[in-house]
# Entry
Amino acid sequence: MKSNERILITGGAGFIGSHLAGSLLEDGASVAIIDNLATGRWENLAGLIDHPRFHFAIADIRDAVVLDRMVSNADTVIHLAAAVGVQLIVEDPVHTIETNIMGTEAVLKAALRYRCKTLITTTSEVYGKGIRTPFSEEDDVVLGATDKSRWSYAATKMVDEFLALAYHHQYGLPVILVRLFNTVGPRQTGQYGMVVPRFVKQALNNDEITVYGDGEQSRCFCDVQDVIVALKALLDREEAIGTVFNVGSQEEITIRGLAERIQLLLGSDSKIVTVPYSDAYAPGFEDMVRRVPNTARIEKLIGWRAETKLTDIILRVAHSLDETRFHPR
Ligand code: UDP
# Structure
């Protein structure tokens, strides 16, 4: 990344976007963000606001005038703005579908006008109900029926991917696609369902730790700082353009195992309880049984692998919620 590069982050007040903005400022870039504060938070920008190379607009990416102005001042656009979190998707599918499809379309149109390099983040959710794990970028996609609103999120993100690749192939827009697997770190809120901040908070408060389903479903949790290293390195490589990359950790754990690890690590008196999916989300809810990435493609191109161990990730999250008792290693 050139030190004077001008970078626009959509969704920059979110958990990943705000960490990324801070890191890019440290690298010497000029960073602008656009965020409607739907799930992003003003507090996440606290350390950035006074920086002379930081600019922000509190606006929706579908506000064409504001978006155009912000993109016109950027060399690179990193698109993170989206409706995320399974809980939010199940509760408010109209918002999810519209934000994710129309928002990405607006960003691509504006990026094309100024020919910005554009990194679009999508999600491992697009692997849907695929059972061949680990998931590789070339794998077929299997989604549930359209009356299961959970899968609408994957479908919107697939449309985003198709559209971004079409802009690349038809108009030559330099686009990179990143499928993020479960990403965790300080500032992530459990409000929209994300399991690690929820379990850590429950453990710290000695509340019941709520494992949904039988707890045998598994995930790989990647530290947000590892993800940032991957995004920045991909932007530096011409060969990344026009390609989809998985970004995630290889350290797999069941959700029950995660609850036990958190309970033990934080010395919590919490009880681990199981909650049926129908109570946690909606009747007929379908979960992903395993979500494990094959990261050979990104490893081959830039030598990236997730470095941070789950135990350290948990301690970092606990530290961000209670600095007096927990210290990251
Ligand atoms: N989950 C859970 N208890 C909670 C929140 C989530 O057991 O309080 C489960 C959820 O059903 C899923 C896993 O944890 O199987 C990961 O959920 P999250 O929403 O963090 O990510 P995703 O489902 O998108 O991988």
About this structure: Residues 6-185+222-249+295-307 form a domain with the Rossmann fold fold (CATH 3.40.50.720).
